[in-house]
Design brief:
Shape: elongated
Number of domains: 3
CATH architecture of the largest domain: 3-Layer(aba) Sandwich
Radius of gyration: 36 Å
Helix content: 25-40%
CATH superfamily of the largest domain: DD-peptidase/beta-lactamase superfamily
Structural class: alpha+beta
Number of helices: 24
């Protein structure tokens, strides 16, 4: 019996020990399995999470390239910008921290909370931008209450600064935050959400030059997320600097002359196509886009009836008025329908079919040749030239003069204008061309549409002997150390369809327009300098033929229905150094609205060149 009990006891202990060993073994197996899972399967992720607790990689935005005028005057640089963000993993209660931040800075909490809500799903280690470009006082407040604002971080980023504010914004452009569509396009691979990129003007056209290359900074932080040590830095590479063709003094002059008007004033070096000035009125301050524009400010800007965001120099399309007579004169002389000695009579009107077409001078000009007709802008002379040419031959010369197609200027959304033909009207309107419409087209009315930059190109080509240059806005591009990237060479777009003799006749007519008392551009004369130019008045709505009725209509007509005023010119006439084109919307006669602007621009530029000390001869 004792042996039996002893055997049973041994078996019981053996079972207990075996069971214990099995439990211990199972525990070790579970532990090993867990260790395998944590170390092998989840190891990389956990290692990254652990590293994220103390190690961060910050992206370092590059300094954007600077913008200078042609002589090296700094127009656009960068200034420090303070942004406040939140790291949700360190905030514990992000909404509460944001509410606390709102109270300390005395700003509404709703926009901050909205940004927090929009960023749901953002990796917990990535900062969520709450407010951009805060003041230095706000920075000091946040730093003083750091312990009360866990997860709040302040970063310093370079931001664009347009030194002269509203000066030349349509040419220089502005920056705005990159859109999700632009990010997804892959066209800007070195950008990320929140970056500002060029959206208009030169800033957009040369974005890849301005942007530079991002750097990185590897840092160590403590449990509060505060920086303790910089481990490694890869410096950002700044963008390239760009020198514009712009002459900032001439630009200031153009804009001051446009104050209170709606329109544009352009200047070009006719020898190479350099755009020396691009005044557009009204303008806007590009700094407003960088600091962030309210909905009210944006709505006010886009609803402005004078369209301050439109670059009227390249996007505005207008009837050319009598400036188009330059094209008609070239076409008539080249096609042989007139010679420089041909005289046509102007009695104040011209009858075509059953319709009477009037000249701007009701009593008529008498007998006119091409030179006098250009100088005095005789409508009847050009009615007869147009009738002999026909609209299609006229259109051929207009296109060869650069009308009806973009100039290729390196600015966005350039308009084409319109050169009408018989085929165009039939296709577009479904009705045949009427002969009387050719007469209107010949003096720059009817279906004709041009842009001011096209007219600048035309008058520059007349000035330089016939070469049509692409308008250039960039003179050269440099690395930050001053070494060259590229220098913009003149680009020829072809030549005017005019012989030397034809250009001589046209230039003589433009000279007389300014320098003879009978010329329509007499107001643009400058003592000691021969200025050549052409006025134009582009009709917006039809006027009664009767003189008394027309006078009453002009006096009562609304601003938006008044004529546009044109003036194109170059000087000195024999050795041109500058060409200008001025368009004043609803300004009335070009001789009184646009010519004085052009005169002052020419005087300013030639004075700066030291050609002669000039005085206006009133």
């Amino acid at each position: 019996m004792d042996n039996y009990l002893h055997t049973v006891s041994n078996d019981w202990y053996r079972q207990r020990i075996t069971g214990a060993l099995v439990c211990v073994l199972a525990a070790f197996l579970i532990l090993l399995a867990r260790l395998y899972y944590l170390q092998i399967i989840e190891g990389p992720g956990l290692r990254q999470r652990s590293q994220d607790n103390w190690f961060r990689v910050h992206s370092v935005a590059p300094m954007r390239g600077l913008i200078f005028d042609r002589a090296g005057a700094l127009l656009v640089d960068n200034r420090p910008r303070f942004d406040v963000s939140i790291l949700s993993r360190e905030a514990r209660d992000p909404e509460g921290v944001v509410q606390n931040l709102s109270g300390l800075l005395d700003i509404p909490s709703e926009p901050l909370l909205a940004k927090l809500a929009e960023a749901r799903g953002t990796p917990f280690f990535k900062p969520i931008l709450l407010s951009r470009d805060i003041s230095r006082d706000a920075v000091a407040t946040i730093e003083a209450h750091k312990l009360e604002l866990p997860g709040i971080v302040i970063s310093v980023e370079p931001t664009r600064h347009y030194i002269e504010g509203e000066r030349a914004p349509h040419l220089i452009g502005y920056l705005s935050e990159i859109s999700p569509e632009e990010l997804r396009s892959g066209a800007l691979p070195d950008n990320s959400g929140g970056d500002f990129i060029g959206k208009f003007g030169v800033e957009k056209a040369y974005e890849t030059y301005f942007h530079g290359k991002r750097g990185t900074r590897h840092v160590e932080v403590n449990a509060l997320g505060q920086l303790t040590r910089v481990l490694k830095t890869e410096e950002a590479q700044p963008g390239k600097n760009i020198y514009l063709t712009l002459d900032i003094r001439l630009q200031r002059t153009a804009e001051s002359l446009l104050a209170g008007k709606v329109g544009t004033a352009l200047a070009m070096d006719p020898s190479n196509g350099h755009v020396l000035a691009m005044g557009v009125s009204p303008a806007f301050d590009p700094n407003a886009f960088v600091v962030g524009m309210t909905h009210e400010s944006w709505n006010e800007l886009v609803s402005n009836p004078f369209r301050p965001l439109e670059n009227k120099a390249i996007q505005g399309q207008y009837p050319p008025g009598s400036v188009y007579k330059i094209v008609a004169a070239i076409a008539g002389l080249e096609e042989g329908v007139i010679t420089e000695h041909t005289t046509l009579y102007c009695g104040g009107s011209y009858t075509y079919g059953n319709r009477t077409f009037r000249c701007w001078k009701r009593r008529g000009h008498g007998f006119m040749d091409a030179t006098n007709a250009l100088a005095q802008s005789c409508d009847v002379f050009f009615y007869q030239v147009g009738e002999k040419l026909g609209v299609d031959r006229l259109a051929k010369y207009a296109r060869a003069c650069g009308l009806g197609s973009p100039t290729g200027i390196d600015l966005d959304k350039e308009s084409r204008g319109l050169v009408p033909t018989k085929e165009w009207k039939l296709r577009r309107l479904g009705v045949p061309w009427q002969g009387g419409e050719t007469l209107s087209v010949t003096i720059g009315q009817g279906f004709n549409l041009v842009t001011p930059v096209q007219m600048l190109g035309l008058i520059s080509a007349v000035a330089n002997g016939g070469t049509r240059h692409k308008p250039l806005v960039i003179r050269r591009i440099e690395f930050p150390d001053g070494s060259p990237v590229e220098e913009q060479a003149p680009v020829s777009l072809g030549t005017l369809p005019a012989s030397k003799n034809t250009l001589r006749v046209v230039r003589n007519g433009l000279m007389d327009a300014v320098n003879k008392p009978t010329g329509t551009g007499w107001i643009a004369r400058i003592a000691g300098i021969d200025v050549a130019g052409k006025t134009g008045t582009a009709q917006v709505v039809g006027m009664p033929d009767d003189d008394d009725k027309k006078k009453k209509a002009v006096e009562s007509i609304e601003h938006y229905h008044r004529d546009h005023g044109w003036f194109v010119a170059f000087a000195p006439a024999k050795e041109p150094r500058v060409a200008v084109a001025v368009l004043i919307e609803h300004g009335g006669h070009g001789s009184t609205s646009a010519a004085p602007v052009a005169r002052e621009m020419i005087r300013t530029y030639l004075e700066d060149l030291g050609i002669k000390e000039l005085k206006i001869d009133n």
